[in-house]
Amino acid sequence: KLLNILQARCEILGVKLVFEREVTSADEYPDADLIIASDGINSRIRNEHVAVFKPDIVGRPNRYIWLGTHKLYDAFTFLFEKTEHGWFQAHIYKFDETTTTFIVEAPEDVWKAHGLDRADQDESIAFCERLFADNLQGAKLMTNARHLRGSAWLNFQRVKCERWSYFNGSSHIVLMGDAVHTAHFAIGSGTKLALEDAIELTRQFNEHGTAPEHIPEVLERYQALRNIDVLRLQNAAWNAMEWFEVVGHRYADTLPPEQFMYSMLTRSQRISHENLRLRDRAWLEGFEHWFAESAAAQSGTQLPAGDAPPPMFTPYKLRSVVLKNRVVVSPMAQYSAVDGVAGDFHLAHLGARALGGAALVFAEMTCVSAEGRITPGCAGLYKPEHVTAFKRIADFIHTHSDAKFGVQIGHAGAKASTRVPWEGADQPLVAGNWPLISASPQQYLEGVSDTSRAMTRADMDAVTADFVRTAAWAAEAGADWLELHCAHGYLLSSFISPLTNQRTDEYGGSLANRVRYPVEVFKAIRAVWPDHLPISVRISAHDWVEGGITPDDAVEIARHFKAAGADMIDCSSGQVSPLQKPVYGRMYQTPFADRIRNEAGIATIAVGAISEADHINSIIAAGRADLCAVARPHLANPAWTLMEAARIGYHALPWPKQYLSAKSQLERNLERERALAEAAGAAGADQANRALGV
Q: Exactly one of 262, 490, 507, 517 is catalytic; which is it?
C-alpha cells in the first residue's frame, strides 16, 4: 500500500514511471545528476561498486517462506507449532483490507527433516496449510513468488553498508531501502524503511537546496541522520531475529506459558518491563502476580499481601540459602588490602552495600595464595589472620542486615604481580615481583608483562590444595556463598581458553581437556564446602577474539561444571586477551546468561552494563537469568538497590531502621517528580511509542 501511495504521488507531480525494466548498471544514466538505487537486497548497483559501498552481508540460519492468505486477523499474530522434528513459527500481520501476510519460519535442520529442501512451492504451501490448519480454518495460503526458480524458502540476509553514496565521475549514486540496509521481518518493514529513507533525503534537499553543487552535502547528511535510526532498528530486529532462531529448542519447551509470552514481548530489548506497564498495565500486573507466586513457591516463602513485588524483588533459593531479592553486588577488586588482610576499608565498603538493599554481597576476588594476587593490594584467605578479618565482615553483614555474604576465590595466574590500577593497570611491579604460573607460557601484554611458566603436575596439586584451604576458611569465616573464579584470563581461565592453553597433555587440546583442571579444582572445593551452601562459577562466556571461547563453548563449559555439582554460572566475558573486541551495550552479556540457563539447564547470574531496575526486571521476568550482578552502580551508590526500589515506586523493600526517615523523604520527592512529569505529558504510551520508534 505504501508503494501505491508513492506511485500516486509521483503521478500527481508528473514523474515519469517506467515498469518492467531491469537496470543493471548506473552507467545506463550517464547524464543523471543523481541516481537513487532502491533495487533491493541483491542490488546490482551496490554490487557494481562493492569496493566503495563496502556492504557487510550476514546470512542467517533459519529458513522462511513469504506467503499470504485471505483470512483476516485483528492483530499482529505469532503462531508456534511443534512437529516430530521441531518447531515452526508464523509471523502474521495485515497486508491490506482483504489480505494477510503469513511468513512461516523454521531452523534449517527442522526444515530439512521435513523434506522441504526438496519440495517445490506448491508442496511447501500445502505443508504449511496442513501445519497451521487449526488456525487457518480452511483458508488457503498463496504466494506472489511464482517467478522464483527452485525453493521458495529463503535465508534472511542482514545488510549494512559502510558508505551509502558514491560519485562515479558523472553521477552521484545513493542507495536506499534494502539495497543499503535490511531489518528482519520479526520487527522491521523494508518498504517502511525505504520510504523513511526517501522522506529524509527529500528533507535534506529541501533544507540545503537541489542544485548539483549541494548534492554531496545532502547525501552526507542523509546517511549521517538515517544511519542512527536504521542502526537502532537493526539492533532491535537482530535481537528479535535471534530470539526466533532459537525459540524452539531454548524457550518453547522450557519456559512456562506466562513467561514465554513475556519473553516474546521483550525479545527485541526495545520493550522493557516498564514499557509493558505503559501498554497494558492489567496484563503486566497479572504476570507480576504469577511470577511472585512462582518465586514464593520456589523459595519456600510466603507471598506478601497486597500488590505483587516487581520480579527483581522476588526471593530466590539455592540449596539452603534464601535471597530476599535478585540483586547481587558483583565482586569488584578494591586493591586496598595489606598483606592480604581485608581491613577497615573492606568492612566499610562491604558493610555499606549490605545495608543498601542487595540480597547478596560478594567480596572481591579473594586470592588463594600470596602468589595468586593480582596486586599486593588484593585480599586473600591464605593465612589465619585473613579468616579473622573476613569473619569480622561476615558478622557485621549478618548482624546489621538481611543480606547474604559471598566470597569469590581465585588465582591471578599470568595476570598476577602487577601494580594497583591507579599506579598503572596491568603493569608489572617496579620491584618485588613474584614468579607467574599459567596453563602455558604467556605474556599478557606483549613486551610489557612478565612471562609465566607452564604449570607442572606438582604445581596443579599445590594450587588445588590452596583452593581447598581457602574454601574451608571461607566457610569458617561465615560466608554464605562461594564462587570459583574461572574467568578473565586468570589462572583457571587460562586453562579453559584456547588462546592461553597450548598444552599437549590431557589438560590441553579439546574443550573437555581444557576444562578438566578447573573442574578438578571445583570438585575439590565442593568436597570441603558445606553441602547446604551454594557454589557458583564465574566464566568468560566469550573471549571476543577470533579463535577464542565462543558462546557455543560457554554452554559446554557450563555443562561440565553442572555435572561436577555447580549450582550456578556467573556469566561474564572477555579480559582473556588484550586483543579483545567486545561489542558493548546495555545488558550486553545477558544473552550468555540466557543461553546457558535455557540450554545447559543451570541457574545463571547476568552481569555487565545492568544499570537500572528496568533492566533487572526484564531479565529476571523473561527467564534470561536468575540473579543480576550490578558492579559500578554500586560503587557510585552503596544504596543503589534501595534507590531503584523507590524510583520505580516499590515501597515494600525493607530499609535499615536507622535510615527510615530518609526512605520516607525520598519516596515523597520521587512521587512529586512523577506527578510533575505526568502533568507535563512526559509519561504515557504515545510518547513511549515515539521514543521507541514504533
A: 490
